[in-house]
Design a protein that fits this description.
Blueprint lengths: L1 E2 L2 H23 L4 E7 L3 H16 L3 E7 L5 H13 L5 E4 L9 H7 L11 H8 L8 H12 L8 E5 L6 H8 L9 E5 L6 H5 L4 E4 L17 E4 L3 E4 L7 E4 L4 H4 L5 E2 L6 H22 L1
Parallel strand pairs: 1-11, 2-3, 2-4, 5-6, 5-7, 7-8, 8-11
Antiparallel strand pairs: 9-10
Helix pairs in contact: 1-10, 2-10, 6-7, 6-10
The structure holds NADPH dihydro-nicotinamide-adenine-dinucleotide phosphate (NDP).
The site of NADPH dihydro-nicotinamide-adenine-dinucleotide phosphate has 25 residues, from helix 10.
C-alpha cells in the first residue's frame, strides 16, 4: 500500500514552476505578480492567504495581499477588481472565499478577468475546461490529477467515483478526469447528498475521491480491495492529543480504509499541499499567456 506524499510531489512541482519563472524572466524581464484580496478577518482565510503569499514569494512570484474590512461593499470590491484587471503589471488575481454574506460570490468571480483568474472559477475557465480546451483550471482538482499521474496510477479506463459536486472540487474534477486525454479517459460517477445507496457506487470505484466535508465518512466496508483513495476532505475535529485542542482529519477513515487500499492520501499532507502548488502554476501560466499577447 502506498501513502501518497502530497508534500513531496508539491515540492517537485514548485521547483518546476520556479524554473519556469526564471525562464519567463529571462525572456520578458518580468516576474509574475499575484494579488490576493482578503475581505474581513476570518482566521482560517487569513492563514490560507498568508500561506499562499509566502509560497508564491519563495518561488519568485511577486505576491501582495490587499486586506479590506468585512464591511467592504460589493461596489468597492468591483472597483478594485476593475483596477486590477486593467493593471498590466498584475498577472494573477484571487479573491479569498468565502465572502461576507452581503457580497455576491458569483458576481465577484465573474468580475475577475478570466485571463488573470488563477483560481480557475470564472465561467469562461470552467467552460473551457468542460469543452476540453483548458486554460486556468481550479487548483484542488488539478492537484488531484497530478497526485495520480505522478504516482503512476492509471486514470484511463478506470471507474472513478467522486463524492461531492461543488464548483470548486467535484464538478471540475469530473471534467478533468473524463476528458479525452491519456491522463484522463476515466468513466466518472459523481455522487452527492441526494444519491441513494451511496455504497453501491463507492464499492464499484477503482479510484474513490471524497470531497464531502464530513470527518471519517467513508468507512472500510464502503470500498473494494485495492481501491485508490484520494481524500480531499479537510475537517477540524477536537483532539486532546494536540496543543491547539483540534486536529485535521479527512472524509475517509484512514486507519481502516488504508488496510484495503492500494494507495491513499493522508490528511494532512495529501491533497492540501497540492492546492497551493497548482495555484502557483496557474499564476506562472497566466503571466506567460498575458506577456505572449
Ligand atoms: P461543499 O460543502 O461545497 O460540497 C460538499 C459536497 O458533498 C456537496 O456536493 C454535497 O452534496 C456532498 N455531500 C455532503 N454530504 C454527503 C453525503 N452524506 N453523501 C454524499 N455526498 C455528500 O464542499 P467543498 O467541495 O468546498 O469541500 C469538500 C471538502 O473538501 C471539505 O472538507 C473542504 O474543507 C475540503 N477542501 C479541501 C481543499 C484542499 O485544498 N485540501 C480545497 C477545497 C476543499 P449536495 O451538493 O447534495 O449538498
Amino acid at each position: 500500500m502506498i501513502i501518497i506524499d502530497g508534500k513531496k510531489i508539491s515540492q517537485n512541482i514548485r521547483t518546476e514552476i520556479s524554473q519556469d519563472i526564471i525562464r519567463i524572466k529571462s525572456i520578458y524581464n518580468v516576474s509574475p505578480k499575484l494579488i490576493a484580496v482578503l475581505i474581513g478577518d476570518d482566521p482560517a482565510s487569513e492563514i490560507y492567504v498568508r500561506n499562499k503569499k509566502r509560497s508564491a514569494i519563495e518561488i519568485g512570484i511577486d505576491a501582495e495581499v490587499i486586506n479590506l474590512p468585512a464591511s467592504t461593499t460589493e461596489e468597492t470590491l468591483l472597483n478594485l477588481l476593475d483596477q486590477l484587471n486593467n493593471d498590466q503589471s498584475v498577472h494573477g488575481i484571487l479573491v479569498q472565499l468565502p465572502l461576507p454574506d452581503h457580497i455576491d460570490e458569483d458576481v465577484i468571480i465573474q468580475s475577475i478577468s478570466f485571463a488573470k483568474d488563477v483560481d480557475g472559477l470564472h465561467p469562461v475557465n470552467l467552460g473551457k475546461l468542460m469543452i476540453g480546451n483548458p486554460y486556468l483550471i481550479p487548483a484542488t482538482p488539478s492537484g488531484v490529477q497530478q497526485l495520480l499521474i505522478r504516482n503512476n496510477i492509471a486514470i484511463e479506463g478506470k471507474h472513478i467515483v467522486i463524492c461531492g459536486r461543488s464548483n470548486i472540487v467535484g464538478k471540475p474534477l469530473a471534467n478533468i478526469l473524463m476528458q479525452r486525454d491519456v491522463h484522463a479517459n476515466a468513466t466518472v460517477s459523481i455522487c452527492h447528498s441526494k444519491t441513494p445507496n451511496l455504497i453501491d457506487f463507492t464499492l464499484r470505484a477503482d479510484i474513490l475521491i471524497a470531497a464531502i466535508g464530513q470527518p471519517n465518512f467513508i468507512k472500510s466496508d464502503m470500498v473494494k480491495d485495492g481501491v485508490v483513495i484520494i481524500d480531499v476532505g479537510t475537517n477540524r475535529v477536537e483532539s486532546n492529543l494536540t496543543k491547539s485542542g483540534y486536529k485535521l482529519v479527512g472524509d475517509v477513515e484512514f486507519d481502516t480504509v488504508s488496510s484495503k487500499a492500494s494507495a491513499i492520501t493522508p490528511v494532512p499532507g495529501g491533497v492540501g499541499p497540492m492546492t497551493i502548488a497548482m495555484l502557483l502554476k496557474n499564476t506562472a501560466l497566466a503571466c506567460e499567456s498575458i506577456l505572449k499577447k
